[in-house]
Amino acid sequence: MTPTAAFRFDNSYARELPGCYAAGRPAPAPEPRLLFLNRTLAQALGLDDDALDGPAGAALFAGNALPEGAQPIAQAYAGHQFGGFSPQLGDGRALLIGEVIDRQGQRHDIAFKGSGRTAYSRGGDGKAAVGPMLREVLIGEAMHALGIPTTRALAVAATGEQVWRERALPGAVLTRVASSHLRVGTFQYFAARDDTERLQRLLDYAIARHDPALADAPQPALALLQAVAGRQARLVAQWMNVGFIHGVMNTDNMTISGETIDYGPCAFMEAYDPETVFSSIDHQGRYAYGNQPRIAQWNLARLAEALLPLILPQDHADDEAAVERAVADATAVIESYPRLFDTALRAGQRAKLGLRALPVVTGEDPAATLADDWLALLHRHQVDHTLGWRHLADAAAGDETPVRALFSDPAALQPWLVRWRALCAADDTAITSGGGASSTPATPAAGEQASPAHARAEAMRAVNPWIIPRNHRVEEALAAASEHGDLGPFERLLAALRQPWTTDPALARYAEPAPRELTERYRTFCGT
Ligand code: AMP
Ligand code: MG
User: Fold this and answer.
1) Are residues 123 and 209 located together in one domain of the fold?
2) In this structure, which residues have their CB less than 5 angstroms from ion ligand 2?
3) pTM for this one?
């Protein structure tokens, strides 16, 4: 099969939402070269991955040879950026080239990023550089391996062209796969223009694509808002539990699908500190680690505002009581968010603590207090977030040495460990008495009667990663690729990130925290 025939497109957005995009064309690339091809993802999408490799794949993924059935469009969207509203953003350096349906029947957007100017480029060149696009591969694949909903990279092709940022950098095009590119900002675009007709069509489209069960809800717009609030609550809780800092949670970077999108200035936390910010443009710390739940709720409130004309019954715009009711309904959804987030966060923390059956106590839940006190300890003693949790699993298996070694004053940890062990014992009792709402006892592996301690340690190692994308390793890999054309470090790091749960001594260098001085100076950029 030729690579250009490898996709079977069904372009619902282009077909059903005229007026919500502008047609575009990828810029030609002088010298395409394939830097990365995600073969497993290609296969999952039902594509012929062999046909997508080599020079023909390079030409395709650099934008020179559009696949048959592609219909490149730049999507319109608006967005609140750092709190200020921009009514006109849109895909300034991206093109949705089409949608494919995977082996499970799921629909995915296939989009280029860095493929040149579009109707929405404003002053920008529409291009992207090799480093930031490979960064998106690494972080997206890491998030996927961590079980966190995310857009993913299908390919990166170098264009052979230089792009100008502070200096000349090698150019590249990323091919991104997303369950859709609908954003909070997509709704804001039409709301800001009082275009209720397109807003309605967008709502119908979003529901059909992401929440078909809501089509018959009494108030579909409200129901979608609630569904997005639930997905974002679960997503941000997962971010928090692995120490992920998105860095630019503008409303145009928040999806309706609940997937993480736009890996620009994101980074993972090292020593635990809720005020951690890495983004060079986030001067006020608006998108600091600890602010992310609040910001997600703030963004949802902007979605609620955009959807308000649709929450209001038709022809009731002048009916004051109806407007009040609609606002109250939308407000109730936004106000439900902290509880949704808290439930998701706490469930994640319980798993990380190795508590599997202990009943949840309403009010002051001892498991929640224990998690809070653990994080306070990590904070006070500047302990690495990832290794702190990971080595707690060793302690569960009976070896406290690794977790104690993370503390300059291990005695400070002792009272907390005593409380944790008491809750673990209560959890074991709940397991053997068949109690607990959430889980069933882990089954011992064949030939081995797992002790509760080992079963707990194993369960903890399946939720507390050993390997995350460490900032110094990411930078090292990108520098080698971008400055020396050496993809070795990128490929080795990628392989490590794809198995975050197993302690493989051969991968120890990827599990080590960065030197503290480096983390203190570390700054990330939007990659624009
Ligand atoms: P981002 O920070 O990547 O979420 O982008 C914010 C907005 O700026 C979006 O509308 C992008 O399409 C646009 N943008 C970012 N970089 C460029 C570029 N190099 N050329 C044109 N538009 C861009
Ligand atoms: Mg963006």
Assistant:
1) no
2) 253, 262
3) 0.96
